[in-house]
Here is the input.
Amino acid sequence: MHATQYELTLPADYDMDIVRGRVARVGRLLDDWDGLGIKAYLLRERGVHGSPVNQYAPFYLWNTVEGMNRFLWGGAFQGLVDDFGRPEVLGWSGLAYEEGDAAGSPAVAAVRRRQPIADGGELAAVMANAVGETRRLAREDGVVLAAAAVDPHRWELVHFSLWEHGTPKAEGEVFQVLHLSAPGRGALARGRQW
Here is the structure.
């Protein structure tokens, strides 16, 4: 499993209905994308859930590198680049994935928590703790799914979860889910990824 995300931070007075309209038009295009586990079309609005910014920030869990590369280099990503400019694409190697107790429900909200990995700790223990946090989070009431991944270049963990209600009980940045493409969700490997 691989995780990617890009963030388009928009002006404070930006009409976020433009983003909603875009997702309504193009969101379904990845509903059957080979190699994609899930794409959550995420939105943050300034002043909502404590967000200081307006932001469009889709989050992906990939089953295959080929599917991810076909998306990035095969033309699909170019439409976003043409409309908004080329964003930095963050990438993490998968650590854990779990379906939540609300796995059959539609996702309404998402929480993303990025955290640096401190120097000096035993890496195996840090990663085991991230796996344990993913399992714990998946058991919370209202969780659709939970995942953890690591970027060994930046030494950063990311915890990601989808929720069936708009008041998630997890630390991190809260996003509204506009659409969820999940063609390979059932193929995402459960549990620890190594």
